[in-house]
Design brief:
The structure holds 2 protein chains of 2 kinds. By secondary structure, chain A is an alpha/beta fold. Chain A has 11 helices and 13 strands. Chain A is globular. The relative contact order of chain A is 0.14. By secondary structure, chain B is mostly helical. Classes of the chains: A alpha/beta, B mainly alpha.
């Protein structure tokens, strides 16, 4: 059974189409990065998966319909929407008590263990904690829940580099164990490149790219082309070309690595570069039609 | 998981009973109610502050008490009793009114605050249904506040009584000055009155919770202005005020069915004045409860659709 399966997922807000027939399949044990520009439909997709919004089309999360079975589903699904959603009035000890009191899969000792590694005091209120500490607290609560699916929507928004790094480190080291599934959206794509097993680009409510990281690495190549080989490289039809310090950097889809190596230095592109290439293309398509 | 199965196989004496068995037993409703008390401490602090002020006032007035009591003893027993009871009734009414006001503002914020501070996303990330959440919030004005009111009133009255007794005793006015008051019966009238009042006010709280779940801002105005506007429209269009008297009856009218006053004004002395039969038989109660149930059902449904504002 796939962890998440959607067919023809649609959601409209008045005249605005947030999701325009999304098909999606996430297998168990994957770490999927859902990347897209603002307003692309990322949050709407996650809201649908979490049973926070109604939708048209078919959607099953862990075999359940999230809209009608949210409360049962939440036994097996956790989410961090962004760092700001823990109520500001709650004390750390109260948060532990409450989650322990309502969640059958919460291991309090485990949460206390995670908190012991931080500077967070039990008696503090959330409003007294720094943004980074709130994120640590939320992560400690979530990681102590034996869930099958964890959804992170911009989990590190507004955190400094140290907290961001630590966030993904503890997620990978202390939580992820190949039987859990993680779906994450973020704008800081470079930080999760090594974390992901799967990559999905979404734009204007549609999935525009869906591949595993192995495929990504074998399929896309970036070459820093020597000036004398630019014409030859362009003949290989790069999907994107940019100039850095007067050198042409070209991104190729399904190109031959040896052939490119003859033209310049070859490497795996970053997700951010591919994102610009793919999304930039979409924008150019729209413009290109008029010129 | 391992530690848990180990624990299960080891027989443990007491203590194990009180420790919550993590994993297997959760009590979403109980913890949701506690959550409300953590967040809204005014639920118990406001009545306590008012009670403290009342006690301060009665402590000051105790200086003049012997003088007043001597004057009172010259009057006939019925008037005497009413005069002795009066400060206790007043204290009870003030605490009751405080709890009512706290309940109103609690309800208006209950489902609005969590959307305003986005914490609804955290609450919804836990396996607690909208039904449990809304019912736990409704239980604050319907169950928790009446209990707190009861405890506060009884404690306040007992301390007032103790204070008066000590002062009167020191001044040679024996206990016989307060024994004519049927304290035992009075202590039964209070819980009955509180239950009747909570049931009678249920649709008001239901309406406030509904507005709290629905309105994007200014919940108080949305709760108060539409009914008021309807009353005014009715008055202008038909020159009648059925709706206004209906609302007034809902706010203050519970006592008419719940008690028999026998021309004593609003004072109560005997259990014979309690008329639970009449109260339970009044259509107003049941129509009100049906409306409250409808409001709560709508609120539960609304919370499902609502996200952060």
């Amino acid at each position: 059974m796939p962890c998440i399966e959607a067919r023809g997922l649609r959601k409209t807000y008045g005249a605005t189409i947030a999701l325009d027939g999304v098909d999606l399949r996430v297998e168990e044990g994957r770490i999927l990065g859902l990347i897209g520009p603002n307003g692309a439909g990322k949050t709407t997709a996650l809201d649908a998966i979490l049973g926070l919004t109604s939708y048209q089309g078919e959607l099953k999360v862990l075999g359940r319909d999230p809209w009608t079975e949210r409360d049962q589903l939440m036994r097996d699904v956790c989410f961090i929407a962004d760092v700001a959603v823990l109520p500001r009035w709650i004390r750390v000890s109260q948060a532990l008590d409450y989650v322990a009191g309502v969640h059958p899969r919460f291991d309090r000792a485990k949460a206390e263990g995670f908190l012991a590694k931080t500077a967070i005091k039990r008696t503090s209120k959330v409003r007294e904690l720094s943004k980074g500490m709130v994120a640590q607290l939320h992560l400690a609560l979530v990681m102590a829940i034996d869930a099958k699916l964890l959804v992170l929507d911009e989990p590190t928004l507004g955190l400094d580099i140290l907290y961001r790094k630590q966030f993904y480190d503890s997620l990978l080291n202390d939580y992820f164990d190949r039987s859990r599934t993680i779906v994450v959206t973020t704008h800081q794509v470079e930080e999760i490149q090594d974390v992901l097993t799967d990559l999905m680009f979404i734009n204007r409510g549609r999935i525009v790219l869906d591949c595993s990281m192995e495929t990504f690495e074998s399929r896309y190549l970036e070459a820093m082309v020597q000036p004398e080989h630019v014409a030859a490289a362009r003949a290989l039809k790069p999907i994107h070309e940019r100039q850095v310090f007067g050198r042409s950097i070209m991104l190729f889809d399904h190109a031959d690595r040896d052939q490119l190596a003859a033209l310049g230095e070859v490497r795996t592109p970053s997700i951010a570069d591919l994102f610009v290439a793919v999304m930039g293309d979409k924008a150019n398509d729209a413009k290109g039609a008029t010129t | 998981m391992n530690s848990e199965s180990n624990r299960a196989t080891e027989p443990r004496p007491e203590g194990q009973m009180t420790a919550p068995d993590a994993g297997s037993r959760t009590q979403p409703f109980y913890w949701s109610v506690r959550r409300e008390l953590w967040e809204n401490r005014s639920i118990y602090i406001a009545p306590l502050i008012v009670a403290a002020l009342l006690l301060l006032g009665s402590a000051i007035s105790a200086f003049y008490l012997p003088e007043r009591r001597r004057a009172l003893l010259l009057l006939d027993p019925e008037v005497q009793r009413a005069a002795v009871e009066q400060p206790y009734d007043t204290a009870a009414m003030i605490i009751l009114a405080t709890a009512f006001i706290v309940g109103i503002f609690y309800c208006l914020d209950a489902l609005h605050g969590e959307r305003r501070d986005r914490s609804i996303l955290f609450w919804k990330s836990l396996p607690v249904s909208d039904l449990t959440t809304v019912l736990s919030k409704a239980s604050i004005p319907l169950v928790v506040l009446p209990l707190i009111t009861f405890a506060t009133i009884i404690a306040t009255q007992l301390i007032m009584l103790l204070l008066a007794t000590i002062v009167l005793q020191l001044n040679g006015l024996g206990a016989e000055t307060w024994t004519p008051v049927p304290w035992f019966q009075a202590s039964l009238i209070l819980p009955y009155g509180l239950v009747a009042l909570a049931l009678w006010h249920a649709p008001i709280y239901g309406w406030l919770l509904l507005v709290s779940a629905w309105a994007r801002r200014t919940t108080f105005l949305w709760a108060v202005l539409p009914p008021l506007a309807l009353c005014i429209v009715e008055k202008i269009a038909f020159n009648t005020s059925y709706l206004a008297s209906l609302l007034k009856d809902r706010l203050f009218g519970f006592a008419a069915d719940a008690f028999a006053f026998e021309g004593h004004g609003t004072s109560m002395h005997t259990l014979a004045q309690l008329t639970p039969g009449k109260f339970l038989g009044s259509p107003g109660l049941w129509i009100g409860l049906a409306i409250a149930a409808a409001f709560l059902a709508a609120t539960i449904r609304l919370r499902r659709y609502r996200g952060p504002i």
